[in-house]
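Appendix B: a complete holo record

For completeness, this appendix reproduces one full record from the ligand-bound portion of the collection. The bound molecule is pyridoxal-5'-phosphate. The inputs are the chain sequence and the ligand SMILES; the output is the full three-dimensional arrangement of the complex, encoded as structure tokens. No fields have been trimmed.
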Amino acid sequence: MGGGGSRFRAIPSVEAAAQAIERLAPDVPARMAVRAARDEIEVVRAAVTRGRQAATIDAIAEAGVLRARLVLEDAPRRVINATGVIVHTNLGRAPLSDRALGAVQAAGGGYSDLEYDLTSGRRGSRSKHIADVVREVTGAEAALVVNNNAAAVFLALEAHARGREVLVARGESIEIGGGFRIPDILRASGAQLRDVGTTNRTRVEDYARAVTDETAAIMRVHPSNFAQVGFTESPDPTELARLAGERGLLLINDLGSGALLDTAAYGLEREPLIGDALQAGADLVTFSGDKLLGGPQAGVVVGTAEVVEPVARRPLARALRPDKMTIAGLRATLGHYLRDEAVATVPVWQMIAASVDELRERANRLIAGVQNVHLVESRAAVGGGALPGQTLPSVAIEVTSLRVGADALAARLRTASPPVLGRIHAGGVRLDVRTVLPRDERVLRETLQAL
Ligand SMILES: *Cc1c(COP(=O)(O)O)cnc(C)c1O
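The structure of the chain with pyridoxal-5'-phosphate bound, as generated:
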């Protein structure tokens, strides 16, 4: 143990390591240098316990600086999404339009008439700014915006089905991911789930048979990132609305993504339109702000005033209300739809609408003068639970290397600044151009050149 003892004695003190960190990086505050030093010395001590030599004080200082700077950095970090998945939940879903970004910045960087009526000089309503535009763009009679769609669904159930039953088709009793499971949300809201039909087939009669005095609502849920094929059946929305009307039940439709524009115009199937769901007779429709809508994270409840107002009056609506920057970003995003310019301005729709020729042209610009890359055909996806299994034809830059494998290449791209995320495919990394924002093209080209 004599050799072990001397190895332990070679470990510098926390104080010495902290001073070394501060000498190396004067931008690291003293308090953080001490913390980083303590953490690094713990790592060294563990290594020595396993029989290793103690790291030098210089090595400890370098590792400490990296550790401290990681905490000091702004986060989440901007990354380049070259995965080909347009609404990528792990990468922050919808990028905002320039105008929406400007609105967020203006709202966040100053005072605003958020809850102030400039005409009367009195207190105003925060929700009015956004509810008016949501009503205009969806055609709904009333609207409420909350933090996300999970909150919208929860609040709708809590307001209208607490202590009562809600009928949900077995094939729609789904998990979306991130712990959002329909049965759990129902239970948390105080409602009772009543399963209807079979996993693959549910008819209007199945709902009709399940109605009791305890039933408050029928809820439809968009299956999102899961698709049923083969021997399947689900009820006609209008007939289901008729049944709900006859039995005095509420018809709730959780669209998940929901869309204001028709994806069928771009070679995809039709993702349910918000307007269609309302037209088909749903009393209350919920959807996300940051999926196909292309705005900031938010959840939207639309429907008749009689149904939406009680939701807005629940005490929990206050706890789930959106921030001013969200309201500003969402309103600006909806403004693009009102002005009929969303396909040209909302990034999610620009990406959906881009033609393969356009993408090839952009890809060619991106790889001009870059070694070890070539263009390949690719398939991009909408993501965000919309149109599972369906893809858009796309163009990808395939990066290969004779010296390093695909995993190492992908790791290099991930650690570039900004990080670039692609897909590993057949010994190389594919960077799908459809999801690369035009504003990131220059830096992506520089990253490829430096690779
Ligand atoms: C995505 C999704 C949700 C959750 O929406 P968030 O805005 O992420 O809270 C709820 N229901 C369905 C059907 C979804 O697809």
